[in-house]
Amino acid sequence: MSLKHRPLSLGIALLFAAPAALAVNASVELETPTITVIGTTPLPGIGVPIEKVPANVQSRSGKQVQQQQTLDLSEHLTQNIPGVVSSPSQDNPWQSDISFRGFVASPLQGAPQGLSVFLDGVRINEAFGDTVNWDLLPPNALAAANLMPGSNPVFGLNTLGGALSLVTKSGFRNPGGNIEVTAGSWGRIGAQFEHGGHDDDNDYFVAGNFSREDGWREHSPSKVKQLFAKVGHETEGMDLDVSLLLADNRLYGTQALPISMLDNPRQGYTWPDRTDNRLSMLSGHGSRFLDDKRLVSWGAYLRRLESTNVSSNSNENFDPLLPATIANAQGSMDRSLTESSTW
């Protein structure tokens, strides 16, 4: 290169070098420290200590649920977790709402649903209306219940108030057996059993629940039958489980009494109000460690629910002096059948 070209070359180099230096300095000034975000997921994870989860997680163990012998999980959560309130939306003890932060998990269509409920990673809010049927969950099959407050997109749509994650028992963690028989007021009788076992690599667990009662009011009996079974294979770095949940329940209720009938609170107003729920759910879950810090998890399920409802209603415009017609009947009977398959 000739001498007369050197100042021009040097000038171009300085012109390009100065903005580059300024850019590096600016990025250093604006650079923020590393932020670690710990999220939650319905699939089993490597295990995050509860004190490091960015939420006020409330937990109940399966042992605590069984010790209190509550009727179902919704009743146990109401009695033990601050902020959870229940109410019998359909006048049956197995059909309660639970309300948390203004949102509910309810079996009643049209309620402001806003809690997501998972069983071993499977969302059990019904596809139609996001309702939750508490009568389909056998309490003696649960190993843990974790309520995570707040709206979190990880748990899917309509997770507005929080998410409830339920984990079932296994033969490795819950070996042995147990049988309980109960009886009480209003013709209530019940029986439940559980048994688990394992060898070096394989395990099994089975739990069943049967309950029936006449109800504290007339025309409000209940019959609940639940069965849960799980088999698994577990090695040092791998865990596989396949489970089956079956339920066949018939639940009755009656409408709220008008003030003029409060002299006998046990009497029914309109009846029958009946709900039949039949559930079959097959699910499989697995996880495998790739190394000390990486875990691959998977889950698959097929869930089939058939729900039949019969609702009686009174006709406030009924006039006994007018001819009997459909419009001038004392009451009406509404029937519905909902069949849903989810996978």
Write up what this structure looks like.
About 10% of the residues lie in helices and about 45% in strands. By secondary structure, it is mainly β. It is globular, with a radius of gyration of 29 Å. The N and C termini lie far apart (about 75 Å).
Strand order of the largest sheet: 9-10-11-12-13-14-15-16
What is the beta-strand fraction? 35-45%
Q: Would you tell me the structural class of the helices and strands?
A: mainly beta
Q: Determine the mean pLDDT.
A: 84
Summarize the amount of helix as a percent range. Answer: 10-25%
Uncertain runs: 1-23
**Rg, please?**
29 Å
Overall shape: it is: globular
Tally of DSSP β-strands: 16
Largest sheet: 8 strands, antiparallel
Distinct helical segment count: 3
Distance between the termini: 74 Å
Order of SSEs:
HEHHEEEEEEEEEEEEEEE
Structure at a glance:
The chain is mainly beta and 343 residues long. It is 12% helix and 43% strand. The radius of gyration is 29 Å and the shape is globular.
Keywords:
343 residues; mainly beta; eight-stranded antiparallel β-sheet; five-stranded mixed β-sheet; disordered N terminus
Secondary structure layout:
Blueprint: H1 6-30, E1 58-61, H2 62-68, H3 73-80, E2 84-88, E3 96-100, E4 103-105, E5 115-119, E6 122-123, E7 142-149, E8 162-168, E9 176-184, E10 188-198, E11 202-213, E12 222-234, E13 238-253, E14 273-289, E15 295-314, E16 331-342
Parallel strand pairs: 5-8
Antiparallel strand pairs: 1-7, 2-3, 3-4, 5-6, 7-8, 9-10, 10-11, 11-12, 12-13, 13-14, 14-15, 15-16
